[in-house]
């Protein structure tokens, strides 16, 4: 294929995939420098400021609590004004926040910068907004689009986080943080300028179907296809639904388990006998293995009941943890890192199910309200893990707690299989 043919194919591509490309690029940046990348700063920051691991974990947990409280407002703003202004502001704030982070010299300053700037930016622009973009532009291929967006985070972890770890090791954590801020401003801000709000705003329907004219038959196949699994549930209606609360409880338990591991990953691997460099390599492997699993699950979810996949993935997380309780061998660490990625890979399938249950009408607000509740799992997990380690000098009890949380989440998500199947049947 020559360059001319490639340009023609890109020009003919459904515009929604271009939107997915933009937010994916932003998620790669955010995933590499923050979601995966911030664990690189954990130990040097703790040592430099003379903190306990519980104190450092508390900052991360407070950030998630802040994000939880801000989520309903963020969701409302996304539904009201669209994702572009929020993503633009958030990316700029992330850049400024990391530059300021390079100059903190006390725990108080760290909390102000991390909570007042970085956390807010990441929640609004890199967590909620990209998912809203995927849900707005796709219905039939919702799971696939969300998978691409979600997979961007481990791509960032695989490509950018090792470079960030190298920068920390070579220059120190402060110059590395400053460089991260510059990258957000130079690479991230321009990406935000190309975001469009919805397919309807440019004369299209979700999934690339043309807008129907007023005299089009109401029963046309295009209309039926485009409106399939788009129930248009309001935020108030969702709030009264048992499905809404089931999803929240399941996600809370999952968040306890996964966020604890991502926050403490390198410290956990050091506890198991690796040095920081070896642990960073394992973290990169964790991110790399995440990618093919993301796409596999996203492809499957477009053809089968998404809630069937989620409990399976959660149970595989349980299986991954068992060797960590029984062995200190390198194979056990790689087995854990490889299989535990399934938990992260299942997230876009989870949100695709949310989109199927509640539609596009108030997705941002619904997602924000869900986040208000389930994020407290992310708040509790890491700080409790830090406290347990400080008291016992071991992560053994932490892994036992992770196992219990995942088993509860598995059971709750399994209860959603029949309601989703009934929705599909009612939709025709």
Question: What would you note in describing this structure?
Answer:
With 428 residues, this protein is mainly alpha-helical. It has a single domain (11-201, 223-427), classed as Growth Hormone, Chain: A, CATH 1.20.1250. It has 19 helices and no strands.
The CATH homology group name: MFS general substrate transporter like domains
Q: What is the H/E string?
A: HHHHHHHHHHHHHHHHHHH
Average predicted local confidence, pLDDT: 83
Please indicate the count of domains. Answer: 1
Instruction: Provide the CATH topology.
Output: Growth Hormone, Chain: A
CATH architecture: Up-down Bundle
Low-confidence stretches: 213-228
Distance between the termini: 41 Å
Total number of strands: 0
Name the shape in a single word.
globular
């Amino acid at each position: 294929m020559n360059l001319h043919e490639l340009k023609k194919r890109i020009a003919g591509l459904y515009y929604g995939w271009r939107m997915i490309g933009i937010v994916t690029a932003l998620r790669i940046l955010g995933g590499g420098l923050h979601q995966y990348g911030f664990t690189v700063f954990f130990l040097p920051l703790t040592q430099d400021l003379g903190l306990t691991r519980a104190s450092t974990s508390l900052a991360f947990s407070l950030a998630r609590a802040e994000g939880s409280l801000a989520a309903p407002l963020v969701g409302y703003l996304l539904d009201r004004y669209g994702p572009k202004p929020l993503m633009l502001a958030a990316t700029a704030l992330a850049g400024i926040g990391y530059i300021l982070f390079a100059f903190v010299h006390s725990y108080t300053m760290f909390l102000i910068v991390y909570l007042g700037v970085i956390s807010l930016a990441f929640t609004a622009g890199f967590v909620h907004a990209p998912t809203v973009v995927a849900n707005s532009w796709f219905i039939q291929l919702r799971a696939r689009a969300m998978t691409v967006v979600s997979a961007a985070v481990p791509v960032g972890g695989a490509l950018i986080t090792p470079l960030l770890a190298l920068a920390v090791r070579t220059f120190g954590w402060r110059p590395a943080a400053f460089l991260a801020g510059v990258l957000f401003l130079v690479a991230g801000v321009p990406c935000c300028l190309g975001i469009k709000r919805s397919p309807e705003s440019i004369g299209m329907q979700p999934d690339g179907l043309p807008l129907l004219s007023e005299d089009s038959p109401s029963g046309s196949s295009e209309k039926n296809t485009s409106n399939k699994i788009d129930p248009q549930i309001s935020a108030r209606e969702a709030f009264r639904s048992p499905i809404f609360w089931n999803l929240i409880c399941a996600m809370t338990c999952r968040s306890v388990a996964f966020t604890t591991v991502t926050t403490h990953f390198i410290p956990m691997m050091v506890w198991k006998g690796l040095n920081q460099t070896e642990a960073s390599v394992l973290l990169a492997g964790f991110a790399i293995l995440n990618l093919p699993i993301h796409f596999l699950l996203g492809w499957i979810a477009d053809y089968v009941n998404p809630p069937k996949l989620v409990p399976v993935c959660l149970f595989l997380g349980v299986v991954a943890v068992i060797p960590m309780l029984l062995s200190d061998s390198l194979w056990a660490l790689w087995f854990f890192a490889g299989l535990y990625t399934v938990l992260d890979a299942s997230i876009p399938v989870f949100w695709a199910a949310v989109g199927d249950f509640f539609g596009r009408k108030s997705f941002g607000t619904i997602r924000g309200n869900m986040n208000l509740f389930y994020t407290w799992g992310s708040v509790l997990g890491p700080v409790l893990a830090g406290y347990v380690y400080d008291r016992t000098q071991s992560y053994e009890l932490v892994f036992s707690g992770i196992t219990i949380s995942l088993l509860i989440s598995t059971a709750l998500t399994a209860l959603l299989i029949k309601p989703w199947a009934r929705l599909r049947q009612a939709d025709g």
